[in-house]
Amino acid sequence: MTTVRTRFAPSPTGHLHVGSVHTALYSWLIAKKYKGQFILRIEDTDLERSESTHVQTILQSMEWLGMDYDEGPYFQTQRLARYKEVIDQLLKDGLAYRCYCSKERLEHLRECQLANKEKPRYDGCCRNQHEFKDCPFVIRFRNPEEGVVAFDDLVHGHIEFQNSELDDLIIARADGSPTYNFCVVVDDLDMGITHVIRGDDHVNNTPRQINILRALGGKEPLYGHVPTILGPDGKKLSKRHGAVSIQQFRDDGFLPHALLNYLVRLGWSHGDQEIFSLDEMIEYFDFDHLNNSPATFDIEKLLWLNQHYLKEAKSEDLVQELDAQMAKAGVSILDGPDLVDLIQVQKERCKTLVDLAEKSRYFYEDFTEYDEKAKAKNLKKEVIPVLQSVLTKLELVSHWKAEPLHACILQTAEDLDLKLGKVAQPVRVAITGGSVSPPLDVTLELIGRHRSLHRIKEAIQICEAGLLH
Ligand code: GLU
Predict the structure, then answer these.
(1) CA distance 442 to 455
(2) Mutate to test the pocket of ligand 1, among 26, 184, 205, 208 (most ligand atoms within 8 A of CB)
(3) Residues with beta carbon inside 6 Å of ligand 1?
(4) 443-457, pLDDT tens digit by residue?
(5) Does residue 320 sit in the same domain as residue 423?
(6) Are residues 343 and 237 in the same domain?
């Protein structure tokens, strides 16, 4: 049996789009599933639009996602000699030819075809022109004129194109540089790719690529064209719908596993299972259950998955990423709890790491602004004795740990004959500025003795000030 070899072939012309990673994920899973190889190929022949910073972003994003590759990254710009060699051979074999048609002629041809309501296509003017002329030329592939090109797409089933619909594709520009459709074929052939899995915006390129491949004597791989991802408005997912680049999802505090889990289910299902470990994705993924119509991106579902994975994550594993998020939020973590302890108490109540960072400011920084509603409800004159009683007890705690701190709150409730919430909530507002936090005892512990006592004193003053009015 041939070894499965799949590839991801991004062009470094912009950010790494989540739609590209959607297709890359399926490529990766198939390689893993059949114990084959996954290859990364950077398609950087478009020199004007390709940038090395985008290459870096692609590599970093792949690493962050944990999508390891067995070969590569290969760079098309490093394979130019190979493309030239193949083009020369095609010319020699009469499978390609020099086309001297001027821009003006081609423009005129196009206008006439459009005026006649015909599909614009090259008319093969130079097909049989064999003498060498000393003027600029491009090289065109001699596409078969008759018959059909058909393939059984892994997602869409049988697809066929009439050769009469396809024209003679330019495979090398006037400056000698090879074109996208040509390089892809040479690469897929040389790299022994068995499954070409890519976005369905490439469906129309496939028959052209198959014809070139056949001319080169290559065996056709299997093709799978994955449907495009749409935004909620039914238009192709783009920046105006929110985050689309992998870097942006990372910046927004998503976890790689959550994103992969979200993407694997986008258009594919395995019964009604929603949560997939990586091993399960590899074991269960198949093309039979992949929908052939576009899937709609649902940020709420991604958030739900992210919250799940935050909760499940080992706190230690989130430290590095949260550290970066705290820095971005402008919170210095030098004076406050260890991040690992903070994560332990906060992770299950947050949807993203950005959310976690924002909700954790009060552990590291003093605040002057309270949540207005929480303040109005809790910091009023009736609570002065409550806060004072808690304060007195807390001041006596020598071992600033959740357990004795909890005992102080309980004891105050008992002494004043109040329900626990009537004591806990004013203290919570006093020390966090709001009405939502992890359990009060651990919150007190992590905020620390000095800060907690100081904040309770401040809250008492606020209550007293209210008293004066
Ligand atoms: N470089 C192409 C793109 O980014 C991918 C082509 C392919 O997968 O065959 O759209």
Answers:
(1) 16
(2) 184
(3) 9-11, 43, 184, 198, 202
(4) 999 999 999 999 999
(5) no
(6) no
Residues 400, 403, 406, 412: is their CA dihedral positive or negative?
negative
- CA 196/CA 430 separation, integer angstroms: 60
Q: Does the active-site annotation cover 422?
A: no
How far apart are the CA of 234 and the centre of ligand 1, in A? Answer: 23
Contact 90, 171 (CB under 8 A): yes
Reported as a single tens digit per residue, the pLDDT across 16-46 is: 999 999 999 999 999 999 999 999 999 998 8
Same domain, 97 and 171: yes
Residue 253 sits in the same domain as residue 295 = yes
In a domain, 366, yes or no: no
Q: Which two tokens stand for residue 236?
A: 């192709």
Q: In total, how many domains does the chain have?
A: 4
Cis before residue 73, ω within 30 degrees of 0? yes
Indicate which residue of 133, 219, 235, 239 is catalytic: 239
pLDDT tens for residues 137-195?
999 999 999 999 999 999 999 999 999 999 999 999 999 999 999 999 999 999 999 99
Q: Nearest Cα to 159, choosing from 292, 286, 267?
A: 292
Q: Which of 23, 197, 202 most suits a substitution to test ligand 1, by most atoms within 8 Å of the C-beta?
A: 202
Domain containing 298 equals: 5-74+229-303
12 touches 50 (CB < 8 A): yes
CA of 169 to the centre of ligand 1 (A): 17
Question: Atom 6 in ligand 1: which residue has the minimum CA distance?
Answer: 9
CA distance 241 to 74: 32
Atom of ligand 1 nearest to the CA of 201: 10
Q: Are residues 393 and 439 in the same domain?
A: yes
pTM for the full model?
0.92
* Cα(41) to centroid(ligand 1), Å: 9
In the reported structure, the alpha carbon of residue 312 is separated from the centroid of ligand 1 by a whole-number distance in angstroms of 35
Let me know if residue 287 belongs to a domain.
yes
- Measure the CA–CA gap between 402 and 397, rounded to whole angstroms: 11
